[in-house]
Amino acid sequence: MSTQLYNLAQQLQQAIRSSNDFQQLKHAYEEVRRDETAYRMFTYFRDLQMQLHQKQLMGTSISPEEVEQAQNAMTQAQRNEKLANLMEIEQRMSMVMADIQQIAMKPLEELYRSFAE
User: Fold this and answer.
1) Which tens digits make up the pLDDT trace of 42-57?
2) Helix/strand/coil for 83
3) How far apart are CA 37 and CA 32, in angstroms?
């Protein structure tokens, strides 16, 4: 494997860690962690999401009650200022990471596309 690519990946990791977006996300997590109510809501919502995701991966259907439970948990989380802020910053960071992945995958996509022509 190319040492140069691994070195660049390490540099990217450091750039992400030092980025304003990541620092804001880290701060938002710390704010939620310090607020007992927000943290309880966060862990409940996260655990519920993970349970539903596991069901999907296993091919198990999700009941309407579970969907409603998840929607209610999301609504409650969005009403909490610290959690709403965290979710907004997470969404931004997720978009940045998706853009980075798309950029990194471009050479392979071009290669595959040229092979199919």
Assistant:
1) 999 999 999 999 999 9
2) helix
3) 8
